[in-house]
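Need residues for this backbone.
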């Protein structure tokens, strides 16, 4: 799924697109909320900047002042919701941490949320800069969390010392994203089986 240019690196998360001038918070909220409402009854491919502007009661230039394209608006509208926030508890064991990350991501990608994320991923494939933004906005903090738990596990003997972090993270995230993009179930049963496999493979 990742290209060499788009692969996450273990750094602090940040947004790809930053505003060039102060935002009107009221208009910003209206744009993001209108985008979320459109997503409840329209596929991503049918949503346009024009439709978002009309729904929010603003001009297209207002949207382009803050976001470079439709995909950027969609990413902020979706990934800044509380349901998509990712946390990294440091008091758990490495295997518990990885298990928690898998379970959380599967919950986030189940049902309608999963369909929306799959469509956003699909829309980002044609532009490398937008793909980089997707990686930063959605995958980066998950990559960082997995890298943290894997490194801790290597240091304390939970996992094998010769584990390659990038390959291990691909092996964790890859099956989830593959199932999502191929229309298969991403559910609790799958996350349980994946965690059971990982518990043995990483040791």
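Answer:
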């Amino acid at each position: 799924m990742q290209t060499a240019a788009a692969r996450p690196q273990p750094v602090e998360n940040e947004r790809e697109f930053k505003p060039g001038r102060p935002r009107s918070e009221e208009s910003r909220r209206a744009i993001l909320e209108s985008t979320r409402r459109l997503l409840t009854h329209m596929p991503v491919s049918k949503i346009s900047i024009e439709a978002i502007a009309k729904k929010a009661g603003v001009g297209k230039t207002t949207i382009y002042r803050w976001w470079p394209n439709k995909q950027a608006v969609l990413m902020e509208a979706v990934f800044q919701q509380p349901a998509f926030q990712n946390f990294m508890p440091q008091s758990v064991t490495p295997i518990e941490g990885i298990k928690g990350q898998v379970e959380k991501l599967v919950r986030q990608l189940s049902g309608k949320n999963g369909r929306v994320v799959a469509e956003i991923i699909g829309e980002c494939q044609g532009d490398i800069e937008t793909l980089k933004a997707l990686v930063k906005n959605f995958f980066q903090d998950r990559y960082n969390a997995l890298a943290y738990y894997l490194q801790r596990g290597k240091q304390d003997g939970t996992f094998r010392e010769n584990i390659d972090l990038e390959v291990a993270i691909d092996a964790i995230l890859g099956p989830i994203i593959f199932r999502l993009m191929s229309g298969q179930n991403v559910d609790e049963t799958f996350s349980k089986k994946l965690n059971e496999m990982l518990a043995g493979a990483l040791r």
